[in-house]
């Protein structure tokens, strides 16, 4: 059985390695979108926020290490325990920020290939829902004890002024797992409908399938919450739940950022990205009934294209796909 020092070191090492990996991936993503393609979007901005809070989690782990996180309560001083409980509050907020921004980033990325109004509405609705859920989580976390300082009050009666955090953590973890699955399956039909070679479609599905790793870590984290809440010594048993929280966050960041890195590994995609870096970002809904003009300012009469979607990770946008298809494969 691992000693307390070994268990603590496993948390520090795991957090350090995966935070560094996630940071490298996000920096590479930012380089592609901001420097190569010159088309950063809300998906990139929210992922940068997730990365910054992931780094904050790393700092909080080191704060926990300084106060002997994972050690039996009998070996801790009152100052250590109070510091660890305050640090726990910071970790809870950091976790909810990370998870929410990662999911919002993924949904904003989906908007880049939202070729139908129904898919666009689903993405926007899910984003709004996650924002509201995030607000609820933060409000509940900051009001879990009345007053809040009761959370780190070590007296026996202090917990009577706090909510049932076990039930709250079960609920939020279960909700995150359900929404993970929803976000994974949401774009599959749309991706399969895009006019791209079959190999590229399969590659896209595989990339999104890798995102299932984050869902798996969420499920494992839920199990660690269960064992943590049943433990007699919460200070000692806090290592595993933090390890899997760190893994869930950083694996989510990495999986959500991988599709944007394609230009770094595909010369043709890189060439296309740099050649078209002046084109307008995002998608645009064109309604002749509302404006009376097409997107280029001309009079109505041409076939209406409901959406123009931006490329994702160097992929041609919907307008380019339509134009290439109309010209035929011999014109490439």
UniProtKB/TrEMBL annotation:
<feature type="transmembrane region" description="Helical">
    <location>
        <begin position="44"/>
        <end position="63"/>
    </location>
</feature>
<keyword id="KW-1133">Transmembrane helix</keyword>
<feature type="transmembrane region" description="Helical">
    <location>
        <begin position="12"/>
        <end position="32"/>
    </location>
</feature>
<feature type="transmembrane region" description="Helical">
    <location>
        <begin position="202"/>
        <end position="223"/>
    </location>
</feature>
<feature type="transmembrane region" description="Helical">
    <location>
        <begin position="167"/>
        <end position="190"/>
    </location>
</feature>
<dbReference type="InterPro" id="IPR052337">
    <property type="entry name" value="SAT4-like"/>
</dbReference>
<feature type="domain" description="Rhodopsin">
    <location>
        <begin position="28"/>
        <end position="265"/>
    </location>
</feature>
<keyword id="KW-0812">Transmembrane</keyword>
<keyword id="KW-0472">Membrane</keyword>
<comment type="similarity">
    <text>Belongs to the SAT4 family.</text>
</comment>
<protein>
    <recommendedName>
        <fullName>Rhodopsin domain-containing protein</fullName>
    </recommendedName>
</protein>
<feature type="compositionally biased region" description="Polar residues">
    <location>
        <begin position="284"/>
        <end position="298"/>
    </location>
</feature>
<feature type="transmembrane region" description="Helical">
    <location>
        <begin position="243"/>
        <end position="261"/>
    </location>
</feature>
<dbReference type="Pfam" id="PF20684">
    <property type="entry name" value="Fung_rhodopsin"/>
</dbReference>
<dbReference type="GO" id="GO:0016020">
    <property type="term" value="C:membrane"/>
</dbReference>
<feature type="transmembrane region" description="Helical">
    <location>
        <begin position="119"/>
        <end position="142"/>
    </location>
</feature>
<feature type="transmembrane region" description="Helical">
    <location>
        <begin position="93"/>
        <end position="112"/>
    </location>
</feature>
<feature type="region of interest" description="Disordered">
    <location>
        <begin position="276"/>
        <end position="332"/>
    </location>
</feature>
<dbReference type="InterPro" id="IPR049326">
    <property type="entry name" value="Rhodopsin_dom_fungi"/>
</dbReference>
């Amino acid at each position: 059985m691992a000693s307390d020092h070994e268990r603590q070191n496993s948390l520090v090492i795991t957090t350090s390695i995966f935070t560094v990996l996630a940071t490298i991936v996000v920096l590479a993503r930012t380089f592609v979108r901001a420097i190569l393609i010159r088309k950063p979007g809300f998906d990139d901005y929210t992922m940068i926020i997730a990365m910054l809070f992931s780094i904050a989690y790393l700092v909080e782990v080191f704060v926990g290490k300084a106060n002997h996180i994972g050690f039996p309560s009998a070996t801790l001083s009152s100052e250590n325990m109070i510091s660890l409980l305050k640090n726990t509050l910071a970790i809870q907020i950091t976790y909810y920020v990370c998870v929410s921004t990662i999911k919002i980033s993924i949904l904003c990325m989906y908007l880049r290939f939202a070729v139908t109004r129904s898919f666009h509405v689903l993405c926007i609705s899910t984003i709004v829902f996650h924002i509201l859920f995030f607000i609820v989580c933060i409000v509940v976390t900051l009001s879990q004890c009345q007053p809040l300082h009761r959370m780190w009050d070590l007296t026996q009666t202090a917990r009577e002024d706090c909510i049932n955090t076990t039930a709250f953590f079960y609920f939020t973890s279960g909700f995150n797992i359900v929404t993970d699955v929803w976000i994974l399956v949401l774009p599959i039909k749309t991706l399969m409908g895009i006019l791209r070679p079959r190999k590229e479609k399969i590659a896209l599905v595989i990339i999104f399938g890798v995102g299932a790793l984050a869902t798996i870590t969420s499920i494992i984290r839920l199990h660690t919450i269960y064992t943590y809440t049943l433990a007699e010594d919460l200070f000692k048993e806090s290592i595993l739940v933090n390890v899997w929280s760190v893994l869930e966050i950083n694996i989510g960041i990495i999986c959500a950022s991988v599709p944007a890195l394609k230009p770094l590994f595909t010369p043709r995609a890189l060439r296309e990205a740099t050649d078209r870096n002046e084109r307008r970002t995002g998608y645009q809904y064109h309604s002749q009934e509302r404006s009376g003009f097409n997107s280029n300012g001309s009079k109505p009469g041409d076939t209406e294209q409901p959406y123009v979607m931006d490329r994702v990770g160097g992929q041609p946008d919907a307008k380019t796909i339509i134009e290439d298809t109309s010209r035929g494969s011999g014109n490439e």
